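request received
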Amino acid sequence: MADYKILFTGSVCSGKTTAIRSLSEIETVDTDAKVSDSVIRRKQRTTIAMDYGVLELNENAKLHLYGTPGQERFRFMWQLMMSDLVADAEALILLVDNTRTDPFKDIRFYVDEFRDYLVKRRLVIAVTHADVRANPDYNYYMNQLKRMGLFTTVMFIDARDPADVLKLVKEVVGRREREVDWAALAAKLADNSTVPEAVAIPDQIVNNDAAKPVSLIDAAVNTRGISGAMHLGADRKVISSNVGSMQSQALLKAMVNLVSALEQKAAFLGKIDNFMLCGEEQETLSVFVEEEQALGLSSDKGLSLTVVKQQASDLLQWSRNDND
Amino acid sequence: MIELLEAVDELDFIEGCCLMQADQVLSSTFPASRRHHETIAKKAFTYVFTNASKLRSTHDEAHLEIGEKRVSGFKLEGSQILICLSSKQTNVVNVRNNVRELYNGLQQQAQMA
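response:
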């Protein structure tokens, strides 16, 4: 019996757990926990260690499906998986959430993180949530990836649809496993589908308040260690804010003014990413800048600056949803 | 505080540093090719620490990431500001801890002398 392994990775909410559940014939092994950071914007629970599922391709071939946790703070698990559990995997499937503000930032990040791992195996990019946001489209992905020097397969999938996810498997092992009846396999897995049309959604879920989208500001303050947030537009004017302290609010505005001035006068030095102000007895104030928006945060002085940066990056990656 | 400047400049990940007081550079090890970073950092940190003082805040450390670089400003005693240049890839906590450790060490030495 041939045993194949595939590793799924990608940002939080990109569909890793869902894709594995779509394909697995066993009850998947999930290690999810209640969300305690910026991810609350998208879901209430998240994978903290790994996902695992199994699919029998035919009598002679079995596929083991592994999924990494999406959050960067669990990257030690990525290393652990790469060096041990999935050291012999056939391919890395990078799931890319098309609703993120800049999906290519995610691609660059994950390709960089898994660079050594990819030397000996295939990379397949699977774009998800295209039903929510169609653009960037396939051609745009191909052009951008070419510019990045990445010549790889790109497929648009719905992680909830087993037949769709199965296409990824066929792409990876199809040439070596010519005896697999892919159509029959898709039919066998049809019950795993969680595409809305295929399942009856109970009223209590439809009416569940927890399912309502969480605003950027609410998501920020639901994040451990963050006490206030200020969302700014492309013109660096405040869109919304819930920074409680007048002192912090005034200082954040001064920081934003400074950043705006530097963006005009010091553009030749490069793009400003962030500006952080710290003090031993004060909460940390930070401004994170993108072309179309900026985010000001006040956070606990004990919260690591690296964690604050990660949280801000995630919050900004989903913030375009506010305008949809 | 020139000793602090020299000690910080010895750190592998610091590409240049300068000590300033009241808008004036007292001493600098910034390479000539990074003078623009020094100028921007001087203005930015003077502005933000002045604002912090006006608002009676005790914030005394700032980090600005611009292009591929990071400039970090540390407000010292006597309203001096130490500015350090590092790569954006360098862990910011590493920069902070090393500068603080060297500063505290030098202060202890001064007290004992």
